[in-house]
Amino acid sequence: MSLENSAAFLDGPRQSLRVGLASVRKPAAGEMLVKNHAIAINPIDGIIQDLGIFVQQWPTILGHDIAGEVVEVGEGVTEFKPGARVIAQALGMITGKPENGGFQTYTVVQAHAAALIPQTLSYEDAAVIPLAFSTAVGGLYQDGHLALQLPQNAHGNTDQTLLVWSGSSCVGSAVIQLATASGFDVIATASPRNFDYCKSLGATAVFDHADKDIVEKLATRVRSCKMVGAFDAFGSKESTHKIAEILSRTGGGFIATVEEPPAHLPKNVTCKQMLAALVPGTDVGTALWRDFLPAALASGQFKPAPRANVVGQGLESIQMGIDKLKKGVSASKIVVKL
Ligand SMILES: NC(=O)c1ccc[n+]([C@@H]2O[C@H](COP(=O)([O-])OP(=O)(O)OC[C@H]3O[C@@H](n4cnc5c(N)ncnc54)[C@H](OP(=O)(O)O)[C@@H]3O)[C@@H](O)[C@H]2O)c1
Fold it and tell me: What residues flank ligand 1, with Cβ below 6 Å?
């Protein structure tokens, strides 16, 4: 293949990304080669860069969220054709192979971790979706997690409520939309400036997670609800403890969380971390990535959220994007155009 590929390489822990030429290979069975037009940056990218964790070989290529154009498909891939506009969750962290990382011009992706996007959706806006979507899917639908009914099986609204902590985060934004599509009432937390944003995604009530009386206020609010559980999209020990206290006071329940749960929780509360990288290719992963997402994006049932903050163009801008994300964002996702 005569394509010229460049990547933003990470040579070792605490090194700055280095842009250089990278190899590119033909997609194998079940894979496809995507030319990236936009990538998004996630907290885990900066964490891996700082700590060197999860890396199977150096140099590595980070990056989970890509949006671009299919160049070539491998054997058995029928739902995508060359030229198709797609998003994909790059799975380099799991495969350990540089060609599966997102921070490069051409990425080899698994077809089951990709979805078609409508012509009306820009690559920059679409790039915010993949990792947060899989994280939401893992916590909401997998057995052993909340195991909610899928959106495609929802017939009207259930009478049950889900508490979503950090509804304005990327993961929280996907959780609110999916839980609502599945027919659940959603009560979220966010900073007051993001209350309307969370409501625009489907939350029926939003509380300030920085309020010192948040546990009391939410416990009072959810006492009259039939709770299906909670999703901690922030995942600090403090947030999980607060959610556990709220659930515990109102009969107990399950918390799906993005990080390792605290060691000690009330007896009537259980909590489990989901891993987004393990979602594509599972039954629920396929049900959501293949059977729900493309149609939901086309119909507007699922929106790319939060808003893309395009901080630069070219692989050289990715390091700046990672540094910017470490300073914190609010209801936005850092995106680099390629
Ligand atoms: N397990 C997995 O597979 C997996 C996958 C993806 C992400 N994650 C983890 O999930 C977490 C969220 O990722 P993300 O990309 O969604 O994050 P993000 O969008 O970068 O998070 C930003 C949001 O965090 C909120 N926030 C800030 N301080 C908060 C606090 N004290 N309590 C509650 N919310 C607070 C802000 O809300 P306001 O501005 O409204 O206050 C802001 O909108 C990260 O820890 C990430 O590493 C895990």
Answer: 42-44, 131-132, 135, 166, 168-171, 190-191, 194, 209, 233-235, 239, 258-259, 273-276, 329-331
In this structure, is residue 212 part of a structural domain? yes
How many angstroms separate the Cα of 185 from the Cα of each of 74, 101, 159, 227? Answer: 41, 36, 7, 9
Tell me how many domains the chain contains: 2
Write the residue with the smallest CA distance to atom 21 of ligand 1: 169
Count of C-beta atoms within a 10 Å radius of residue 206: 23
The residue whose C-alpha atom lies closest to atom 41 belonging to ligand 1 is 191
For ligand 1, atom 23, which residue shows the shortest CA distance?
169
Full domain range(s) for residue 213: 134-276
Q: Tell me the C-alpha distance between 137 and 250, whole Å.
A: 25
Query: Domain of 40: which CATH number?
Result: 3.90.180.10
242-282 pLDDT, tens digit each: 999 999 998 999 999 999 999 999 999 999 999 999 999 99
Residues 230 and 310 in one domain: no
pLDDT tens per residue, range 62-110: 999 999 999 999 999 999 999 999 999 999 999 999 999 999 999 999 9
